[in-house]
UniProtKB/TrEMBL annotation, chains A, B:
<dbReference type="GO" id="GO:0016787">
    <property type="term" value="F:hydrolase activity"/>
</dbReference>
<dbReference type="InterPro" id="IPR041072">
    <property type="entry name" value="FAA_hydro_N"/>
</dbReference>
<feature type="domain" description="Fumarylacetoacetase N-terminal">
    <location>
        <begin position="1"/>
        <end position="77"/>
    </location>
</feature>
<dbReference type="InterPro" id="IPR011234">
    <property type="entry name" value="Fumarylacetoacetase-like_C"/>
</dbReference>
<keyword id="KW-0378">Hydrolase</keyword>
<feature type="domain" description="Fumarylacetoacetase-like C-terminal">
    <location>
        <begin position="81"/>
        <end position="332"/>
    </location>
</feature>
<dbReference type="Pfam" id="PF18288">
    <property type="entry name" value="FAA_hydro_N_2"/>
</dbReference>
<protein>
    <submittedName>
        <fullName>Fumarylacetoacetate hydrolase family protein</fullName>
    </submittedName>
</protein>
<dbReference type="InterPro" id="IPR036663">
    <property type="entry name" value="Fumarylacetoacetase_C_sf"/>
</dbReference>
<dbReference type="Pfam" id="PF01557">
    <property type="entry name" value="FAA_hydrolase"/>
</dbReference>
Length: 340, 340
């Protein structure tokens, strides 16, 4: 089953069930006004939503046209966005890039930060920033939405709580990270609003690509219209989603609708760092990684971070080449605060 | 105007308007089902809620009995909980306690962490933890709930966005903090669910005690039935709420209903560290501070962190000795995960 949220005049948008081919959708006000409402009562809402999804597949005249650019992130705002760093290769490269050492425990103890979840960007919204000097970067990720998870849940309980799978652009401001992490309290300014692809998908819809805790497909990242990354989200994921969720729930319960992210998808190449697609590699899901590779190979980074006007597209396709989640398509734009 | 949220079978509870003396309340389903709903549309809901509040004061037979122990935190779950460290004295002492140096920029650049906001404790709920070795501590704080704040808002805009004032217990797990901060991504396990006193109050209701961005009253913290802290929240607050909110909104907008915390209220004494109430001082709003003072005075901390069965009570009284927000009353209890 595929679900999306259309923009309307409400803060949480309008929940729709979307056809598998992403062409049609149906509003379901009698089941739930918005996705958080459906998640608040998933045992009741989910079978009803599945019925609508079945009808959409059986009757090609049913529903209205689904327009990805009219969609919010599936949860326009959420009660939690906890983002892991499951691809430890990415962490190691980014740390090297900012000359910070990586403790060996990072291979056994998941790294996770509490992200802001009150104001996500829509998947086709611009990334508006006041200053290019912030070092604007994309981070292509996989994320899951969970049901209620009790404090201290084990990995089996955590795996069973996964309700929906999404892909994300966890926008990062690299120029602000070193000083902010130096303060010791983690990211705040350096992690502005994230965006999620238009459609959230139930695990059963992913077929063999979903093993219960990992998604085994390439994450396609295009930067300014050219292929930039196609790292496989099922490869080099040191901590799977069950482990990330259990980690998040160690000292407090997670409310239904909490989003848990994978961190930037990143593949090693023959046990070394990755390689650009143009050089026969699988590329990168963020600019910070290619800058690190450039530093390793040539002594300094060459690729700049995103400038106003730059575009990023993030998508994932199934074995038949069909888009699963729809696409994140964002352009970086100059932001001027009102009154400034 | 005073607002509270009664526990019911819903996730967000039932919004009530509470009489100034905290004895009576009125449900307002025709105005808003829950507090987040009222905040989502404050311009419309607020005058209607004010009407009910006026009626409650004018007619002492109006409303039902208000029972603090039946209350949730005013927002049982929120879209954001961003907690500052405005009382830099606290930060300096806690850092000294864990032998971490404090950069001088901490006096000019606010420290703030992104907290979990999906599963707050009710004000009279127990603090349930698996292990006393986590180093369970209370942190008495002031917090505000804001309306929408655009990205890049200045301090005037930030001040104008303050809708409600609360007091909080930002439960902290001191034993987990050093290792977690050492990982570089900020707090996660070490900041479990926080609790807020039963009643949220509009700034106009605080009279002269509220100067627009600071609350000039002592925060009364009782530990195991004895006075432990009475630090004045208006003193030694290096960054006021307008500055904290503007800081939070630097690179992203804040959604209506976002909660911004002050950090542990902490007063210096004659420009030195504080002193216990039993020794004539204003005491402490967390155990970590008294342990630091003990270390300064005697070479090592004496007061242990909270054990199962320990209780904490946090309250604030107006000039006439009347409770403003009601009281946080929590007991630490052993938690055993289901199936463990």
């Amino acid at each position: 089953m595929k679900l999306a949220t259309l923009k309307d005049d409400s803060r949480d948008g309008c929940l729709v069930v979307v056809s598998k081919d992403l062409t049609r959708c149906v509003k379901v006000p009698d089941i739930a006004a918005h996705l958080q409402g459906a998640l608040d009562n998933w045992d009741v809402s989910s079978p009803k939503l599945q019925e609508v999804a079945k009808q959409l597949e059986n009757d090609s005249s049913y529903g209205e046209k689904f327009d990805q650019s009219a969609a919010h992130s599936p949860l326009p705002r959420a009660f939690q966005w906890a983002d892991g760093s499951a691809y430890v290769n990415h962490v190691e490269l980014v740390r090297k890039a900012r000359r910070a050492e990586m403790p060996p425990s990072f291979w056994t103890d998941p790294l996770m930060y509490q992200g802001g979840s009150d104001s996500f960007l829509a998947p086709h919204d611009p990334i508006r920033m006041a200053d290019e000097a912030y070092g604007i970067d994309m981070e292509g990720e996989v994320a899951v939405i969970v049901d209620d998870v009790p404090m201290g849940a084990g990995t089996d309980q955590a795996r069973d709580a996964i309700r929906l799978v999404m892909i994300a652009n966890d926008v990062s401001l690299r120029g602000l990270i070193p000083a902010e992490l130096g303060k010791g309290f983690g990211f705040f300014h350096s992690k502005p609003s994230s965006a999620f692809a238009p459609v959230a998908v139930t695990p059963d819809d992913l077929g063999d690509a979903w093993d219960g805790a990992k998604l085994h497909l390439p994450l396609l990242v295009d930067y300014n219209g050219a292929p930039f990354g196609k790292a496989n989200a099922g490869i080099d994921m040191t901590f799977n989603f069950a482990e990330l969720i259990a980690h998040a729930a160690k000292t407090r319960p997670l409310c239904a609708g909490s989003i848990i992210g994978s961190g930037t998808v990143s593949n090693k190449l023959n046990d070394g760092p990755g390689k650009a697609i143009s050089e026969g590699g699988d590329g990168f899901s963020c600019i910070a990684e290619i800058r690190m590779i450039e530093t390793i190979n040539g002594g300094k980074p060459v690729t700049p971070f995103m400038k106003f006007g730059d575009t990023v597209r993030i998508e994932m396709k199934d074995a038949n080449g069909a888009s699963i989640f729809g696409a994140i398509e964002q352009t970086v734009q100059k932001y001027t605060p009102k009154g400034a």
